[in-house]
């Protein structure tokens, strides 16, 4: 029974670790009234020098369709001729590495060597961890920018970043990431 509990706990940890969440960051021109932008258009995507899994028709379609839906929910209208603001995006995928740690198992949870409580892993009572190697992983960023057409200046930029397990799943998740990025936009969607 105890072994079954360990297997269940390990499965839960693996499941939670596989649900890598997307982190969002944004910046904007603070003094600008974004409600002045009523129409929008698209600039071509910016070419990325990184390993790019999102440079295909399906990914482009997922990004543009989701972005258009979000912009229209804010009351903006698409215009080919003289839009108020132009949007563009860039996707970047980088290879990174991180340390892998080994940890002696003395039990489940407990207080660490300096009084830290560690309920999420099998560190045990007074256990410690040490690096034993490194592993490679892919990390992706989808950046969307708004450019004021009159001044040709970037007035807003937001980024969604997450670890990529498989390119196909990441491409299918793009509409969700785009929606999260546009939640950062200074004008909120209409109800």
UniProtKB/TrEMBL annotation:
Domain of life of the native organism: Bacteria
InterPro entries the record matches: DUF4136 (IPR025411)
Keywords, in A-Z order: Signal
Protein name per UniProt: DUF4136 domain-containing protein
Domain DUF4136: 29-186
Pfam families assigned: DUF4136
Organism: Sphingobacterium suaedae
Transmembrane portions of the chain: none
Record carries keyword Signal: yes
Stretch forming the signal peptide: 1-24
